[in-house]
Amino acid sequence: MEPVLLASNVDEGAAVAAAGLLTPPDMVMLLARLKAEAVVGRMVEHGGSRDTGADGAETDAAGPIDGFILGGDSAFELDGVVYGKPHLPAVARERWMLQRGREGVLHSGHWLIDHRGGRAAGATGGVSSSTVRFADDISDEEIDAYVATGEPLQVAGAFTIDSLGAPFISEVRGDPHAVVGLSVALLRRLLLEFDVSWPSLWNRKL
C-alpha cells in the first residue's frame, strides 16, 4: 500500500497544554485526531489524473482528498512519565541511560477520517499500546554511537525497533507495528467500521 504523505503542521505542545491533564493514550489520540483534521480540505495531486495546461503540457490534476485520512501520534511512557522526541543528542543519551535494562510502554494513536468523494463523512480512532524492554547489557559506548547516528533524535522514546536501534531491544509485548508508529492491525479494524476491506486498498504491485 502506497500512501500520500501530508504534513499537518499541528503545534503539538500547544494542543496538549490547552487540553489539560491527559493520560498517555488520551494524549496520542488527541494529537492523532488533530493531525488528521488539519489536512481536511487540503488539495492533493491525484496520480493517473492529468490536466493539460495552457502551454499544452500535461500536469497532475490537483483536487480534494478522495479516500481515507489517517492521523497518527506516538509517545513512550516510562515510570508514568511520557517521553516524545528528544531532538537533542544530550537528551537522547540521558533517556537511554535511564531506560537501559528496563521496560516502558509505547502508545500509538490513530484517527481515521472517511473522506471518500472529497468530503468528510465520518471518523473513528483507537490506540495500540505495546511494552518494550531494553537490553540490560548496553554499554555507554554503544549508546553514544547510536545517539551519534541521529536516528533517535526524531522518534518517540529515542529508539526504533526497525532500524539501528533494533539490536538494543530485547523484547516487545504487543503489536510491534505500533512501536514502529503505525499499527496496521488497528488500522485494518478501523477500516472495517466503514465496511472497507484491507485488500481493497492495495495499490502497489509487489
Layout: helices, strands, pairs:
Elements: H1 12-19, H2 24-38, E1 43-52, E2 58-64, E3 67-78, E4 81-83, H3 89-99, E5 103-115, E6 123-134, H4 140-148, E7 169-173, H5 176-180, H6 184-192
Antiparallel strand pairs: 1-2, 3-4, 3-5, 5-6, 6-7
Helix pairs in contact: 3-4
Using only CA atoms, what is the Rg? 19 Å
> Which strand-content bin applies to the residues?
25-35%
Q: Strand order within the widest sheet?
A: 4-3-5-6-7
How many domain regions? Answer: 1
User: Which CATH architecture would you pick?
Assistant: Alpha-Beta Complex
CATH class categorisation:
Alpha Beta
Number of helices: 6
What pattern of helices and strands is seen along the backbone?
Answer: HHEEEEHEEHEHH
Distance between the ends: 10 Å
Verbal overview:
This protein is an alpha+beta fold. The chain has one domain: Maf protein (Alpha-Beta Complex). Helix content is 28%, strand content 30%. It is built from six helices and seven strands. The chain has helices spanning 12-19, 24-38, 89-99, 140-148, 176-180, 184-192; strands at 43-52, 58-64, 67-78, 81-83, 103-115, 123-134, 169-173. It has a five-stranded antiparallel sheet. A two-stranded antiparallel sheet has the order 1-2. A hairpin with a 2-residue loop joins strand 3 and strand 4 (81-83). Helix 3 (89-99) runs antiparallel to helix 4. The longest helix is centred in the first third of the chain and has 15 residues, at 24-38. The model is unreliable at 48-59 (pLDDT under 50).
Features:
about 210 residues, alpha+beta, Maf protein, 5-stranded antiparallel sheet, two-stranded antiparallel ribbon, 6 helices, about 30% helix, about 30% strand, globular
